[in-house]
Design a protein that fits this description.
A nine-stranded mixed beta sheet has the order 1-2-6-7-10-13-14-15-17. Strands 3-5-4 form a three-stranded antiparallel beta sheet, with helices on one face. It is α+β, with helices and mostly antiparallel strands. It has a domain at about 5-20 and about 170-320: T-fold. The protein has helices at about 25-45, 50-55, 70-85, 95-100, 110-120, 150-165, 260-275, 275-285, and strands spanning about 5-10, 15-20, 65, 125-130, 135, 170-175, 175-180, 190-195, 205-210, 215-220, 225-230, 230-235, 250-255, 290-295, 300, 310, 315-320. The structure holds adenosine monophosphate and magnesium ion. The site of magnesium ion (MG) has 6 residues, from α7. Magnesium ion binds near residues 148, 149, 220, 264 and 267.
């Protein structure tokens, strides 16, 4: 039995990215970090230039041709934004930039400014041309923001790279987006243990441990990026109808799935739907599993065939559906 783990980490995408392997492999870790950096450089909207920023800077002016993979991700993001009747909206950029939650200068903007930005976030106003791979934002001031899916997309690519390099066991952790490869040979059960953060804990406490094999575990939560003002919490997932952070019964949604992109999409979509609508969807889609942490301190486990969960926080009560 293999007994050691080798962890490599770097600060990328504004978070600590880590790769855990069961055998030392400095070279693959180096390749993985380079690929993540390259993809971050294409997708980020937190710098002046990237492929996505070129689209944003040309809003209202002209279409911009992007590389095939980025075009295909944008195509998926638009489909998700239009298909699900949810809060998911990849044209949310103007609101994200106005509130600046998680960045310097965060604020509760005036109702007037929010109203103005709401005119710039219609995902139908993003024109895609599949022949030229070009993207056109029809109104000046529009901005694409792929923050809700970029990490999932990148994690899936990293997995492919690892498999191509004959690395069949490990964990890619992109700060909240975790993708496990194969089985954990250091555990008799073969499960990888993934910690589920206790909401708002300042000392990295856990609500529980999720046990999975060869699955992605993605969490969207209101405690990830937020600020408090006058006793009210403002977090980073917006309701595109109101322009304010979504307000519902949930603290977080964790999706356990095969693909990390899928997990990232559904974690945001389900956050917007709330628990009842999400549960109805999950009943019809047994390949997806979810863990909801509710503000009333309940943990709801849905479709628990694909994982097991060990609660570590006595504040919460578990409900299995
Ligand atoms: P996640 O943590 O995966 O739910 O993604 C949250 C990030 O997605 C935010 O930091 C924003 O960059 C972006 N975002 C915020 N609100 C929305 C929304 N309603 N739809 C899509 N992306 C959003
Ligand atoms: Mg997401």
């Amino acid at each position: 039995m293999v007994c050691s783990r080798y962890e490599y980490s770097q600060t990328l995408m504004g978070t600590t990215v880590s790769l855990t392997l069961l055998e030392p492999n400095e070279a693959i870790a180096h390749t993985v970090f380079q690929i993540i950096k390259m993809l971050e450089d294409k997708l980020t909207v937190n710098r002046l230039f990237s492929e996505v920023m070129l689209i944003n800077l040309a809003a209202g002016k002209h279409p911009v041709t992007v590389s095939q993979p980025i075009f295909s991700l944008i195509e998926q993001a638009q489909k998700v934004s239009l298909y699900f009747n949810s809060c998911f909206n990849f044209a949310i950029g103007p609101l994200v930039k106005l509130w600046k939650i998680g960045f310097q200068g965060y604020q509760v903007p005036s109702a007037e400014l929010i109203k103005q930005q709401l005119l710039l976030i219609d995902p139908k106003n993003v024109e895609l041309d599949t022949n030229t791979h070009s993207v056109f934002l029809k109104k000046t001031g529009m901005e694409i923001d792929l923050g809700a899916i970029a990490k999932g997309y990148i994690a899936d690519i990293v997995k492919l790279v690892l498999l191509e390099n004959q690395v069949y066991q490990g964990i890619i952790n992109l700060g909240g987006n975790v993708l496990t490869l194969g089985e954990c040979l250091t555990e008799q059960s073969g499960y990888w243990n993934i910690g589920l953060r206790k909401p708002f804990s300042i000392s990295d406490e856990l609500s529980g441990v999720i046990k999975v094999k060869n699955k992605s575990v993605v969490t969207s939560g209101i405690y990830e990026r937020f600020f408090m003002q006058k006793n009210k919490l403002y977090h980073h997932i917006f309701n595109p109808k109101t322009g304010y952070p979504l307000d519902n019964e949930l603290e977080s949604v964790t999706i356990i799935s095969d693909s990390s992109l899928e997990g990232d999409i559904y974690s945001t979509v389900f956050y917007g739907w709330g628990i009842e609508k999400s549960k109805a969807y999950l009943r019809k889609n047994q390949n997806l599993s979810a863990i909801f942490l509710l503000k009333n301190k309940t943990i709801a486990l849905i479709n628990p065939d694909n994982f097991s969960f060990q609660k570590t926080d006595t504040q919460y009560t578990i409900k299995i559906d």
